[in-house]
Amino acid sequence: MKILVLNAGSSSQKSCLYEIADEALPTQAPKPVWEGKVNWTQDHGVAEIEVKTAIGATVENSISGESPEAHLAYMLNTLTDGATKVINQLSEIDLVGHRVVHGGQNYRESVVITEDVKKAIANLSNLAPEHNPAALAGIKAIENILGKVIQIAVFDTAFHRTIPDAAAIYPGPYEWVEQGIRRYGFHGISHQYCSGRAAQILGKDLASLRLITCHLGNGCSLAAIKNSRSIDTTMGFTPLEGLMMGSRSGSIDPGILIHLLRYCNYSVEKLNDVLNKASGLRGISGVSSDMRQVRKAIAQNNTRAQLAWDMYVHRLCSNIGAMLASLGGLDALVFTAGVGENSPGIRQAACDAFGFLGLKIDQEKNQQQPVDEDIATPDSAVRVLVIHTQEDWAIAQQCWQLQQNSNLLDF
């Protein structure tokens, strides 16, 4: 079975093609046979296209003067043409899976995309404006390029559907609940993949583990996982709540927002822009939303960059503590995504804060770019894992499982 995965961002479109036997899923993530990425640069209408295959063939090109759909079509044509050809024709693709960030209350598991599903994704765009419209554009583009191929939406919010109401409902008027205002949580595809991979690495049944998974990228969230289920998470009604992030503020006193609107001439649009794009590491450091650049500035004695680091660590540790309370203990702390996988300093700082639990990190292992590895000392009471998140493979897995359960290809 050939499954194409599309992972849409606000300024990029990543794609992978997996070939999976009909009989069974592999126990570990295979390498995709083909990977493609379109990056739209600051110059309007210019696309940087990068393609590679499992055997090392590559294509790089810049295209201008075309629509985003044309850019995607160009990228997909490299599946069947030139040095990166891996299939004879696009009609060989059996399923197309899409990462969709917000599924609201009605979409609590992966579904075949219909007109109703597309309308729902569009209606939820105001809650995930950077992502849902991009996913919808990818869905429509695939319809035009590949025709009637079966498309499946895999929702980032679905994994968190098991969060109990006491953790999911906000303490406002009950009318909010009736309006669908509640904690949905995000990065669910990553949290779910990493929890399963953690169980594999530890040789344990996932249902027996209490985990905190730390997805630390440009966007950041934690999940508390018990009995294989998400029982708490830091992101909420939108991806803005929770941890301090690259350019997002995370949780702040809502009274600040009222103050800015009432006394500081802020419009709703300016408030949205400040909270999502000019806050977090970028806003405090004045340097960058990229942790690597913040670290470089700290090395040059930049006091604002140091403050940004200290705040990031403080909020990370505070929220890990909150997840601990939900779990009633901890078997493993998991780090993933760009910062989680590549910043030994952040991992060290977070682990040092929980030494009172008997958690001990192996400093040498921590510095050696670990991938899918336990970096706790042998005598640590809590395991510490660094896992390379593979959202694209997780999406392909869910597509395969939905097909097996529904016999989609028989229709």
TrEMBL record:
<feature type="site" description="Transition state stabilizer">
    <location>
        <position position="248"/>
    </location>
</feature>
<keyword id="KW-0547">Nucleotide-binding</keyword>
<dbReference type="InterPro" id="IPR004372">
    <property type="entry name" value="Ac/propionate_kinase"/>
</dbReference>
<keyword id="KW-0067">ATP-binding</keyword>
<dbReference type="GO" id="GO:0006083">
    <property type="term" value="P:acetate metabolic process"/>
</dbReference>
<dbReference type="GO" id="GO:0006085">
    <property type="term" value="P:acetyl-CoA biosynthetic process"/>
</dbReference>
<keyword id="KW-0808">Transferase</keyword>
<feature type="binding site">
    <location>
        <position position="14"/>
    </location>
    <ligand>
        <name>ATP</name>
    </ligand>
</feature>
<feature type="binding site">
    <location>
        <position position="391"/>
    </location>
    <ligand>
        <name>Mg(2+)</name>
    </ligand>
</feature>
<protein>
    <recommendedName>
        <fullName>Acetate kinase</fullName>
        <ecNumber>2.7.2.1</ecNumber>
    </recommendedName>
</protein>
<keyword id="KW-0963">Cytoplasm</keyword>
<feature type="site" description="Transition state stabilizer">
    <location>
        <position position="187"/>
    </location>
</feature>
<comment type="subunit">
    <text>Homodimer.</text>
</comment>
<keyword id="KW-0460">Magnesium</keyword>
<dbReference type="InterPro" id="IPR000890">
    <property type="entry name" value="Aliphatic_acid_kin_short-chain"/>
</dbReference>
<feature type="binding site">
    <location>
        <position position="7"/>
    </location>
    <ligand>
        <name>Mg(2+)</name>
    </ligand>
</feature>
<dbReference type="GO" id="GO:0008776">
    <property type="term" value="F:acetate kinase activity"/>
</dbReference>
<dbReference type="Pfam" id="PF00871">
    <property type="entry name" value="Acetate_kinase"/>
</dbReference>
<keyword id="KW-0418">Kinase</keyword>
<dbReference type="GO" id="GO:0005737">
    <property type="term" value="C:cytoplasm"/>
</dbReference>
<dbReference type="GO" id="GO:0000287">
    <property type="term" value="F:magnesium ion binding"/>
</dbReference>
<dbReference type="GO" id="GO:0005524">
    <property type="term" value="F:ATP binding"/>
</dbReference>
<feature type="active site" description="Proton donor/acceptor">
    <location>
        <position position="156"/>
    </location>
</feature>
<comment type="pathway">
    <text>Metabolic intermediate biosynthesis; acetyl-CoA biosynthesis; acetyl-CoA from acetate: step 1/2.</text>
</comment>
<comment type="function">
    <text>Catalyzes the formation of acetyl phosphate from acetate and ATP. Can also catalyze the reverse reaction.</text>
</comment>
<feature type="binding site">
    <location>
        <begin position="290"/>
        <end position="292"/>
    </location>
    <ligand>
        <name>ATP</name>
    </ligand>
</feature>
<keyword id="KW-0479">Metal-binding</keyword>
<feature type="binding site">
    <location>
        <begin position="338"/>
        <end position="342"/>
    </location>
    <ligand>
        <name>ATP</name>
    </ligand>
</feature>
<dbReference type="InterPro" id="IPR043129">
    <property type="entry name" value="ATPase_NBD"/>
</dbReference>
<dbReference type="InterPro" id="IPR023865">
    <property type="entry name" value="Aliphatic_acid_kinase_CS"/>
</dbReference>
<feature type="binding site">
    <location>
        <position position="99"/>
    </location>
    <ligand>
        <name>substrate</name>
    </ligand>
</feature>
<feature type="binding site">
    <location>
        <begin position="215"/>
        <end position="219"/>
    </location>
    <ligand>
        <name>ATP</name>
    </ligand>
</feature>
<comment type="similarity">
    <text>Belongs to the acetokinase family.</text>
</comment>
